[in-house]
Amino acid sequence: MKLASLTVGGVRRAGAVNEADATVALLPASLGTVDDVVRGGPAALDAARAALRGAETRPLSEVRLESPLHRFNRDILCTGWNYWDHFEESKGKREGQDPASRPEHPAFFTKGPDTVIGPVDAIAYDPAVSAKWDYEAEIALVIGRDGRSIPEEKALEHVFGYLVANDVSQRDLQRAHGGQWLKGKSIDATMPLGPWLTTSDEIDDIGGLQVQCELNGRLLQDASSAQMAFSIPRIIAELSHGMTLRAGDVVLTGTPSGIGNAREPQIFLGHGDVVVTRVSGLGELRNRVTLTQLT
User: Fold this and answer.
1) Which of 3, 75, 167, 265 could be 197's S-S partner, Cβ–Cβ 3.0 to 4.6 Å?
2) Which own/partner pairs from 100-106 qualify as long-range (CB within 8 Å, at least 24 positions apart)?
3) 94: which strand partners?
4) Residue 131's CB: how many other CB atoms inside 10 A?
5) CB 97 within 8 A of CB 172
6) Rounded Cα gap, residues 152 and 161, in angstroms
7) How many CB atoms are closer than 10 A to CB 141?
8) Ranges of each domain in the chain
């Protein structure tokens, strides 16, 4: 099932996308939002599936999809350096923050939930905040069942579904605050998420998805999730070690090579740029970078 979020008559509703005929079926308002379905467990998802029979449908071309999720338990949980080609391309370009060797464990950080925007919303851009706005195409996952110290072999049982994300980052801020990435990852209205939440049962092989990012029609990132340094089950197992993950938590799984900061010459985002982020089987985000006063 592909769960989308849209506003109808001033009320946020959950919908189910049918890509084959490019429509979205409106689920009953009584089921709540996509956030409610995620937190409601298997019973809520079964109810959503049952509600498809006879549901009103609308062409996707006539609706504006929003971020599938709007209610967050905490910051977005993120994984850094999770494609070795990306780790290697940035060597010597981290302004004194290079590790001595390849990490033996995933690198984790968080970004504020106010970063989240929808699949066609404008990416906020304010050159007074940062001079180095970078793109990072990623697979995001949503936890569907609470768990702590989750064994790697059971990790995927805790995943509700997957989305596309772009972890737009401000590289100068990322370096400027004691080596901590939070500030350079948490600028408001900068992380597209969506276009819908694909339930895990629809993905046959999470290790075989293609992750891409285009900037103004130029393909700059193109890699398989099979190239991850640490698999999604490993990420969940390590992140949950001694720390409870809860239904509704969003986890980003890292970006592949091709980021703007590592290129020669460097490429950074600016007003008017169009960023397209896609993951095979999960959909596509299309966002324009737009001058926005953030100070």
Assistant:
1) 3
2) 102/229, 103/229, 105/230, 105/238, 106/79, 106/80, 106/81, 106/82, 106/229, 106/230, 106/234, 106/235, 106/238, 106/239
3) none
4) 11
5) no
6) 17
7) 26
8) 2-62, 76-291
Burial grade of 133 (CB within 10 A; 0-12, 13-18, 19 or more): buried
Classify residue 40 as exposed, middle or buried by CB count within 10 Å of its CB (0-12, 13-18, 19+): middle
In a 13 Å sphere around the CA of 158, the CA atoms on its Cβ side amount to 28
Q: Which CATH architecture has domain 76-291?
A: Alpha-Beta Complex (3.90)
176: number of Cβ within 10 Å: 14
Q: Is the distance from CB of 69 to CB of 38 less than 8 angstroms?
A: yes
Classified as helix, coil or strand, 108 is strand
Residue 229: how many other CB atoms lie within 10 Å: 19
Residue 98's pLDDT is: 75
290 pairs with which residues across the strands? 124
Q: What is the predicted pLDDT for the residue at 95?
A: 66
β-pairing verdict for 133-134 and 169-170:
antiparallel
pLDDT, residue 1, reads: 98
3-state class of 21 per DSSP? coil
Say how far apart CA 33 and CA 44 lie, in whole Å. 11
Cβ neighbours, 10 Å, residue 274: 13
Give SS3 for 201.
helix
Question: What is the predicted pLDDT for the residue at 165?
Answer: 99
Q: Average the pLDDT over 16-24 and give the result.
A: 98
DSSP letter string, 115-178: GEE-TTSPEEE-TTT-S-EE--EEEEEEE-S-BSS--GGGGGGGEEEEEEEE--EEHHHHHHST
Q: Which residue, chain included where needed, has tokens 């629809």?
A: 202
Percent of the chain whose predicted confidence (pLDDT) is above 70: 98
